[in-house]
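Fold this sequence, please.
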Amino acid sequence: MKERSSRLGNSLRNLTASWLNQAAVIGLGFVGRMVFVRFLSQEYLGLSGLFGDILSMLSLAELGVGTAITFQLYKPLATGEEDKVRRLMNFYRRIYTAIGVFILLAGLALSPFLSFFIKDMPDIPHLKLIFMLMVANSASTYFFSYKTSLLNADQKSYLPQLSLLGGSVATCVGQIAVLALTRNYLLYLTVQIVCSLGANAFISRVADRHYPFLRTDRKVLPTGEEVRGVVKYAGAAMLHKIGALVVFSTDNIIISKFQGLLSVASYSNYQLLSKGLASILQQVFRSMTASVGNLGALEEGEHQYAVFRRLLIFNHWCYSFAACGLFCVATPLVELCFGEVYAMEQSVVALLTVSFYLTGMRRTAQTFNDGCGLLYHNRYAPIIEGLINLGASVALVYVMGVEGVILGTILSTLLVPFWVEPVVTFRFQFRRSPAPYFARQGGFFLLTAGECALSWGLCALFQGPVWLQVVVRVVICTGVPNLVNLLVFWFTKDFAYYRALAARLLRRGK
């Protein structure tokens, strides 16, 4: 019981820090983007989105090693095996240093071919230098981030989250000042590099204070058996990472190639919203992964399944709420913050909302697969998903434009991971049929569609200034899905856990 309470406490601390950090990142991102579009052209905005996706593809060099070693750290951290933790972290440090160097070299080799990814080359000076600065910022994170993984694996992700929050604030303030004073994009990127290095260096020092044994015997490496465990899990994690990058980091590349940078600029504002919301919620589930790993190592299967069911309701509640907001508020918010020139058709927003929700409703199964080390069992599924996504997006962009790219993502999600991931969880972890899970997912989707339709209908009744539309729609999209979910789930068995948890927290607060 004490272990379960500790897991809950760690998850809540991690969750609070994650929400605080991601909310600040989104808020600062919006403020920074508003300043950005007023001082620099649309082409710069499109370029930022395009290069960001290219750099995501370069991060394939990580090969899933981080996920593999994080999983290998759960048990020795739980049982206090400092020697094993030290060996794994020494190995991790060497691998990530090599990866950072590789990304720098790969970026340098790719820089002469940037025109291949852009339909109409913009009149932007120092294009290659801009790209290399972004490459340097991406590569530099690998020299420190391995210690972040150690804190995450030990259920202490709130520590790096708070450090990253400080870095985000410094970055935003510095970049706004640079744009306002100089309008120089190169200096803008330099501020990002300096602040990122500072935040990651601070996290490294925090990890050293919590785990002083890391500073001793830095040459000892894992045993052959431990390396084989890492390699096996890393191979599966690499395939998952390749699939995820193809699905989620090629949209801007395809749009830039076939539609141009101006379309990327408009779409990237909507991506800022959807990815921002996804980041907040993803951090919530990431903050639980280490606790789920601890749960899988120490608890019986029936208790694990009960936690899974409770987490699935939480998963739906979060993403139905966010989906309503994205569907109803995105366009007026983009118009208010960035100007009407960046507004897109509601059909784009509708498809983006469906893609956002379907991807989000995979989080429960993904959390258990990651925490319980099940990635190996569905290692080929992400590659199939990526191929379907790439083929469908490229084919449909000719017919439907931006909508076709999003539809390609939806199709690949439904055809592969949406059913493969839970099947693996139920077969290898719970050893029971996943049929009730899919029935619940169908009910959740219909419920979310109804909540979005009701919210949209109520929002349509009010017409006024854009800023007031945003306020009214936020109120409606906060009230409708949360009230409907509360009425639907209040008397269910799984929701009883949350009622009891809320009562316990209220008593503690008093």
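Residues 1-5 have pLDDT under 50 and may be disordered. DSSP finds 20 helices and no strands in the chain.
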